[in-house]
Every structure is written in structure tokens, then in C-alpha cells.
């Protein structure tokens, strides 16, 4: 390894000074065990960054992605590993739904082996993956030739940058953030040293991304990773690659990734044709685009305090475009990140890492713009399967990764090269001056700006455009001061190489001050039942189906398999979720989520163990999606829906329900004539498909000949778990036993073939007389998928051990001049 800054410091005879002694110990530890030193360093930063959230519950965007798997996977510790999710949309696959992370090793260990509570696991999950994100970027920068300062600064900019912190409420995205840089790092080292073992390890890391619930990050890295890796190999390869081995490295990477992801991938492919998402989103995806005007957030620093209120509504260009609340997402990567990335581009524009990461950042930003540029619509129209991902804004992930990588390399360049140092100083100073000048001009022209901004602000709550201009002026001044301080840090750090840690600590402080408000957390948010859930629980006390909650022990929970609840998504949030700051409307996300919980908004009702008829579900069938679009409120009781939440203004007299409670513009109603979860139907009431010769034949799809005026006779459900349902029926005549759950591949019945009744639910023929019937769920291709995943993980772990040991053997002695290159 090349001599560090303290080597020069000691040579001039100042060893006895305390600063030199302390820095010497740190540098010595980092030189001997760099990975261990980085691990401890980033562990400390992660703890500090999330300190305000310790002891609180993170508030998630979609509890379907977050708490459903946690509650269901809790069964692993009791020998009840579920593969089906009974809580949403008449039921849907849990294994094979891709985003549910049913077989992600992290949560399997935390839930199944350590038996931690689901809520604790959700918080630990966040801490772990932000630490992994920083460590992964540190490893990636080391792999492409970064030295001491650069990998640390780049890792801080990536792991704690605004975009990744904004995504703390989307747990299914975090595995991609944490593991993709590590997978790329291993792939680059494998390509440089032509090690198939390390290629297998890189593929395993990428496969874990899909197991963790992030298919988009998996697909992009699977396609682009092998193409970018050889371009990022620093210097000359340590061993000349044969053409066969050059092809074998990416092939092993792809194979290991597919093997590791197979437990989710194979069942998902088996179910894909029948899913509502199989046709893609098309133009709907364009609504989730990143507006170009929001690039101002790249410079929205909060080191001296944020003048603009969190979640302030800008109106205009954000209205109706997916995220209408700009500050719910931040793109700020830190003043030092911008300065160092600019230094790298200005001083080494033709270097391979500069070109790869620079081009990658531009492409990712153009994709994130979605419908605001011609690129995304063109790809949507010409690349099959491109429209499956409906979230163009998520491509900011790769922009963040590329920008942080450029900043890491630029940090090394700025501390070692005078040209890079000057570029960083002048770019940062120019940004600071531009922001300060913009603040002065905005203050001088505040009257004209008020008139210009007025149409952009929402008119529903009485906007104050004058206050908005004052806040903009203040925000510009704060950001300009932050970039001015960054320019001073560039100048100070350049004076003495001993101060290489100063940029990283400044960057962390900058990101901590700016990104901390993005962490939505509240003590005990999920601990108590919602108001409507309390009302429902009180109504259900006398039910004969009362029993223990099997999958959410220690929490209020209603027995699965009893009834469903529908919640109308058109209910507008009440005005008390809107707060004001100097007359500017701001939506309080915590208040909004609390109201959504109280009114059983889809994806949050599961906290009380309530099954939903609506709600977002990536694995719901196309038939269910089509039926949802045509159903009316009076038809819901046919599907075991007993309660509904509707807008208060939509209440009607004599509409087949009774109002139980009202809250914030929403009304909880109890529906009449509710059909049971399981019921018996005589043959003559069912009409088979036209091509079937007999109405009693086991049709693949059957419909009602005449819909009964009253609910059919109930069959007794004696055991109801996600993967197994046991029913007792005493049929007066031969007929059909219907289970009011979703029909889907993988379900079998001991009584015979399962038919699809009324396009949605499961039914099976039964003879006259008493009978016990059991439905079983075995996801298609799950067993071979699990076997392949286990093989991929074993190969990846072995590859890490073999690759590391062989590289250790090839490393020259520590005193040789070649040690730095080998390291």
C-alpha cells in the first residue's frame, strides 16, 4: 500500500504530538484491516443518523410490502411457513409475488432463527440496509481504485444521500440500495482477476436483491453490470484473460444470480401470465415521473436550517403526478458530493470510471424524467416488458449511485491533484455565489415573483404566495451558505493530507441536517387498533368464530377467514392533515398516515388483522382487477365483505347497509345479506362454460345460472391458515362447495379438481351427505426454486471464501512496492 499522510508527518519528527498519534492509530487500523475499520465507522454513522428513530415505529408507504410478510413470516418460527397471503384481494401469492421478500435471508434469520418481533425486525431491516449501502459503495470505490478518503466520502454521499433516505418508508426497495454496489464491486474484482468464484459471489448478491423484493434493481444490474464491469477495472489486469474465461465470468455471474433468485423467480414466472400486471402499465407509468424542475432539490441544502417546510405543496408541475408532495422525496446528495463529482469530471474527463459513471448518471436521470422526455416513452413502446415497472422516478437510484461514485473518486483526486483541487474549489464557490446572487435577486424581485408563483400554488386552502417567496429567498441563502462552507472545507482539506477525513465528516453533517426530516417515525404507531377496527372488533365479540390470532401474536387481531372489509379509495383526506407555515400549505405525513390507519385505508388495515377486499397487490390476478372495475357496493357482500368504508357524502338511505361510525369524512358501514366464507350450491344453480357438455362437469370456469336472492347455505370452516383451509359440509344433494377465496395456480383439493366460480373464487364438486374437504396451497415451481436458491447461496459463499484466499496468496509482501496495486 502506498505511504499514507502520516508517513510524511512522522518523517519530519512530530510523532509525539497527540493529533499525529491519534490519526496514526486510525490509519494503522485502516491499513491493516480496512474492511473492519470501515464497518465500525459506518455502523457509528448509521446509528447517529437514525438516532431520532430509535424506539419509534417507521411509518411505511405500503404496509402490504412491509407488515404483511412480517406478520405471515412470523409463522416460520412455529413451523408454519406460509406461501399464500389471505389478507388482500380474496388472497394472493406470498411466495412468488417478487416484492414480498418471503425468502429473503435477512428476515428469515431475524424472524425465524432469532424470533424477534415483526415490528423490531422492520426497524432493524432499515438500519442494516443503510449500513450495507455505505459498505457496498465503499467496496465498489475500492474495487475501481479508490484510496482512503474517496471510498469513505463516496459511501457517505451514497448511503445517507437524500434519495436513499427518502426511500426509508419503502422497505422492499432497500435490498437493492444496499446490495447492488456490493454486487458490482465483486463483479469488478472477479473481472480484474478472472475469478469465477468471485463472479458467483457477485451473482449471489444480485440474486438476494430479487429475494429482498426489488425486481427493478435486479433487472437493470443483471443487464448493465457485466457490460460496465470490464470498463471499471483499474489499470492493467493482473492476469491476461483467455477469451473463454472473459465470457465465463459474466456467464457465472448471471447463472448465480438466477439460481439465488429462483425461489421467488420461478413461482413468479409460473403465476405471471394470470397477473394483472402482466400487460404492463403503459402510459400509467408516466404519471410517476420526476419533473425536471425538481432538479432544484439537488442544491437544497439544510445545513443552516430548512426554510421550506417539510412536505410543502408546490402545486403546478407536481399536481396529479404521482408524488404531489415534493419534499416527501429529496434528491440532495450534499455539497461535497457535487464539488467532488465536478472535480472528477473536470480534471479526468476521459478516465474510464468518469465516462462510465458520468454516462450512467445522465442516462439514469433521463429515465427518471419519464414522460417529460422522449426517451422513456420510446423505450416503453419498443422494448417488451419495459412497461412492467411503473415508477420512472426510481431511476434516481442509479443516478445517486453514479454521482456518489464520481464524488468518491473526485475526493481522492482533489486531495492529491492540484488541478482537481482547483476545480472542486471553483465549482463549489461558483455554486455558492450563484445561490447567494439568486437569493438577492429573488428578494429584490419578490413582488413580481409573488405574482408568478400564485398560479402554481394550490387554491383549495388559501395560499400565501408572498410567504412562499420569502421562504424561497431564505432557502437559497441557506443553501448558498452551505456551499460556501464546502468551498472552505475543500481549501482546508487540501492544505494537509492528514485531514482526509474532514470532507467525509462535513458531508455527513450536511446530509444529516438536510435528510433527518425525511424519516417518518412515531412511537407506537402500530401498537393500538384503529378507531374503525375497534368498532368492528366490538361488533364481532359475539361471533361464534372467535379464536386466537395465529400469525400476529401479541397484537389485536381478528381471526382470519371470517369476513372482509372494503375501503373506498376515493375518500379525500380531511383538512386537519394539512398544516400551515407562514401561510403555505404543508401536508403532515404522520398525521395523514394516522388518519389513513384510523379509517382502515388499504395496506394499513392488516395492522388489526383485517382482511381487505381492495388494496394494492402486485400479485393479484387479472380477473380480480377486471372484476374490481365493474363491482358496485351492493355486490360486495357476495365476496364475504361485511364492512365497508365509504365517503360520508355518499351515504344513502335504504341502501343495504347501516352506518356504524364516522371519522374525517369517512363512514364505516355494515353491509347486509353477507355471503359466508364457504357455502354450498346445488348443481342447477351453476352454469358451466358453453363447451362443457354437463353442468356438473368439473369446469375450469363456471358462473351463476341465477344469482340467489339470499346468501347460500353456509359450510363450516373448522381450520383456516394461509396455505390450508379445512371445511365441513353436509350437502343435501350433490353440488358445489365454494370457498370465497381467490382461485389461483397451486391450489389443490382432496375432493377433486378445483373450478373457478364467478370468475374469482374456488369451488369443488361434493356428493350428498356430510364430508370434510381440505384445500392445500403449493406454489408452482417452489420446491425446485428453493433448491436452486440454496445452491446459488452455497456457491456464492464458497466463492467469497475461495476468491479471498486466492487473492491473499497472490498479494505481495506488505513492504514491497507492488503492495499498493495488489491491495
Specify the oligomeric state. Answer: single chain
Structural class: alpha+beta
Overall pLDDT? 80
Helix content: 40-55%
Terminal residue distance: 7 Å
Uncertain residue ranges? 1-29, 313-327, 544-556, 690-698, 812-823
> What does the radius of gyration come to?
29 Å
Largest sheet: 6 strands, mixed
Q: Which band does the percent of strand residues land in? A: 5-15%
Principal-axes geometry comes out as globular
Query: Strand arrangement, largest sheet?
Result: 12-17-20-19-14-13
Count of helical regions = 25
Strand elements, count? 21
Explained architecture:
With about 800 residues, this protein is of the alpha+beta class. The chain contains 25 helices and 21 strands. The strands form six sheets. Strands 12-17-20-19-14-13 form a six-stranded mixed beta sheet, with no helix packed on it. A five-stranded mixed beta sheet has the order 8-5-9-11-10, covered by helices on one side. Helix 10 (about 195-210) runs parallel beside helix 12 (about 245-270) and helix 14 (about 350-370) packs antiparallel against helix 16. The longest helix has 30 residues, at about 245-270. It is globular and about 90 Å long. The N and C termini lie close together (about 5 Å).
Keywords:
six-stranded mixed sheet, 21 strands, 46% helix
Q: Secondary-structure blueprint of this entry?
A:
Blueprint: H1 5-11, H2 18-32, H3 34-49, E1 57-58, H4 63-73, E2 84-85, E3 92-93, H5 105-113, H6 118-143, H7 149-159, H8 162-166, H9 174-193, H10 196-211, H11 215-228, H12 243-272, H13 335-347, H14 352-368, H15 375-382, H16 396-416, H17 418-444, H18 446-453, H19 465-493, H20 501-515, E4 521-522, H21 531-539, E5 564-567, E6 578-581, E7 584-587, H22 589-598, E8 611-612, H23 622-630, E9 641-647, E10 657-663, E11 666-671, E12 678-682, E13 686-688, E14 701-704, E15 716-721, E16 724-731, E17 735-742, E18 747-749, E19 755-757, E20 761-766, E21 769-777, H24 782-810, H25 819-822
Parallel strand pairs: 5-8, 5-9, 14-19
Antiparallel strand pairs: 1-4, 2-3, 6-7, 9-11, 10-11, 12-17, 13-14, 15-16, 16-21, 17-20, 18-21, 19-20
Amino acid at each position: 500500500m502506498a505511504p499514507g499522510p502520516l508517513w510524511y508527518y512522522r518523517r519530519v519528527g512530530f510523532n509525539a504530538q497527540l493529533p499525529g498519534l491519534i490519526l496514526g492509530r486510525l490509519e494503522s487500523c485502516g491499513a491493516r484491516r480496512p474492511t473492519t475499520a470501515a464497518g465500525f465507522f459506518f455502523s457509528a454513522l448509521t446509528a447517529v443518523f437514525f438516532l431520532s428513530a430509535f424506539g419509534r415505529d417507521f411509518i411505511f408507504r405500503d404496509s402490504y410490502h412491509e407488515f404483511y410478510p412480517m406478520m405471515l413470516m412470523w409463522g416460520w418460527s412455529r413451523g408454519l411457513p406460509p406461501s399464500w397471503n389471505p389478507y388482500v384481494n380474496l388472497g394472493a401469492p406470498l411466495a412468488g409475488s417478487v416484492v414480498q421478500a418471503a425468502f429473503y435471508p435477512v428476515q428469515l434469520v431475524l424472524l425465524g432463527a432469532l424470533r424477534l418481533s415483526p415490528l423490531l425486525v422492520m426497524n432493524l431491516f432499515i438500519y442494516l440496509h443503510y449500513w450495507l449501502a455505505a459498505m457496498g459503495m465503499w467496496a465498489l470505490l475500492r474495487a475501481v481504485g479508490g484510496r482512503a478518503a474517496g471510498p469513505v466520502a463516496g459511501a457517505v454521499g451514497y448511503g445517507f444521500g437524500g434519495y436513499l433516505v427518502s426511500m426509508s418508508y419503502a422497505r422492499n426497495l432497500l435490498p437493492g440500495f444496499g446490495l447492488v454496489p456490493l454486487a458490482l464491486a465483486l463483479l469488478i474484482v472477479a473481472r480484474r482477476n478472472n475469478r469465477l468464484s468471485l463472479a458467483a459471489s457477485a451473482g449471489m448478491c444480485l440474486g438476494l436483491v430479487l429475494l429482498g423484493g426489488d425486481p427493478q434493481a435486479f433487472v437493470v444490474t443483471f443487464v448493465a453490470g457485466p457490460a460496465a464491469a470490464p470498463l471499471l477495472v483499474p489499470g492493467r489486469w493482473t492476469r491476461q484473460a483467455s477469451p473463454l474465461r472473459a465470457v465465463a465470468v459474466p456467464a457465472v455471474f448471471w447463472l448465480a444470480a438466477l439460481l439465488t433468485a429462483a425461489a421467488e423467480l420461478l413461482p413468479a414466472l409460473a403465476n405471471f401470465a394470470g397477473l394483472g400486471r402482466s400487460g404492463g402499465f403503459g402510459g400509467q407509468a408516466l404519471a410517476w415521473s420526476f419533473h425536471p424542475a425538481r432538479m432544484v432539490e439537488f442544491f437544497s441544502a439544510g445545513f443552516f436550517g430548512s426554510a421550506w417546510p417539510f412536505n410543502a405543496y408546490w402545486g403546478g408541475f407536481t399536481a396529479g403526478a404521482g408524488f404531489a408532495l415534493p419534499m416527501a422525496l429529496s434528491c440532495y446528495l450534499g455539497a461535497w458530493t457535487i464539488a467532488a463529482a465536478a472535480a472528477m469530471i473536470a480534471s479526468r474527463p476521459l478516465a474510464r470510471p468518469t465516462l462510465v459513471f458520468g454516462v450512467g448518471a445522465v442516462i439514469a436521470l433521463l429515465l427518471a424524467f419519464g414522460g417529460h422526455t422522449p426517451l422513456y416513452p420510446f423505450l416503453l413502446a419498443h422494448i417488451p416488458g419495459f412497461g412492467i415497472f411503473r415508477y420512472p422516478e426510481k431511476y434516481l437510484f442509479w443516478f445517486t449511485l453514479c454521482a456518489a461514485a464520481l464524488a468518491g473518486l473526485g475526493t481522492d483526486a482533489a486531495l492529491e491533484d492540484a488541478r482537481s483541487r482547483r476545480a472542486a474549489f471553483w465549482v463549489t464557490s461558483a455554486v455558492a455565489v450563484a445561490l447567494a446572487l439568486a437569493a438577492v435577486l429573488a428578494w429584490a424581485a419578490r413582488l413580481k415573483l409573488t405574482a408568478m408563483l400564485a398560479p402554481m400554488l394550490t387554491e383549495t386552502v388559501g395560499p400565501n404566495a408572498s410567504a412562499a417567496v420569502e421562504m424561497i429567498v431564505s432557502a437559497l441563502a441557506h443553501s448558498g451558505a452551505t456551499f460556501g462552507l464546502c468551498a472552505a472545507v475543500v481549501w482546508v482539506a487540501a492544505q494537509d493530507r492528514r485531514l482526509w477525513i474532514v470532507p467525509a465528516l462535513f458531508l455527513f453533517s450536511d446530509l444529516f441536517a438536510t435528510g433527518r426530516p425525511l424519516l417518518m417515525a412515531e412511537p407506537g404507531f402500530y401498537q393500538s387498533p384503529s378507531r374503525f377496527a375497534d368498532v368492528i372488533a366490538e361488533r364481532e365479540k359475539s361471533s361464534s368464530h372467535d379464536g386466537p390470532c395465529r400469525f400476529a401474536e401479541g397484537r389485536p387481531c381478528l381471526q382470519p377467514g371470517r369476513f372482509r372489509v372494503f375501503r373506498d379509495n376515493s375518500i379525500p383526506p380531511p383538512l386537519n392533515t394539512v398544516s400551515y407555515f407562514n401561510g403555505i400549505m404543508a401536508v403532515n405525513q404522520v398525521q395523514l398516515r394516522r388518519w389513513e390507519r384510523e379509517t382502515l385505508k388499504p395496506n394499513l388495515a392488516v395492522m388489526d388483522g383485517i382482511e381487505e377486499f381492495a388494496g394494492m397487490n402486485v400479485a393479484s390476478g387479472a380477473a380480480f382487477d377486471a372484476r374490481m372495475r365493474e363491482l358496485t357496493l351492493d355486490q360486495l357482500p357476495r365476496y364475504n365483505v361485511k364492512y365497508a368504508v365509504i365517503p360520508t357524502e355518499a351515504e344513502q338511505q335504504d341502501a343495504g347497509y347501516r352506518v356504524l361510525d364516522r371519522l374525517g369524512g369517512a363512514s364505516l358501514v355494515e353491509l347486509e345479506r353477507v355471503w359466508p366464507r364457504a357455502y354450498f350450491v346445488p348443481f342447477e344453480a351453476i352454469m358451466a362454460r358453453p363447451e362443457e357438455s354437463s353442468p356438473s362437469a368439473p369446469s375450469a370456469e363456471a358462473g351463476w345460472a341465477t344469482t340467489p336472492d339470499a346468501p347460500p347455505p353456509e359450510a363450516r370452516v373448522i381450520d383456516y391458515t394461509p396455505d390450508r383451509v379445512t371445511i365441513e359440509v353436509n350437502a343435501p344433494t350433490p353440488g358445489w362447495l365454494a370457498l370465497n377465496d381467490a382461485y389461483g395456480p397451486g391450489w389443490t383439493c382432496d375432493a377433486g379438481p378445483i373450478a373457478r366460480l364467478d370468475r374469482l373464487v374456488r369451488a369443488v364438486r361434493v356428493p350428498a351427505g356430510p364430508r370434510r374437504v381440505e384445500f392445500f396451497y403449493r406454489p408452482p415451481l417452489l420446491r425446485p426454486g428453493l433448491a436452486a436458491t440454496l445452491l446459488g447461496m452455497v456457491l456464492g459463499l464458497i466463492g467469497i471464501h475461495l476468491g479471498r484466499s486466492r487473492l491473499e496468496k497472490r498479494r505481495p509482501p506488505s513492504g514491497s512496492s507492488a503492495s499498493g496495486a495488489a491491495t
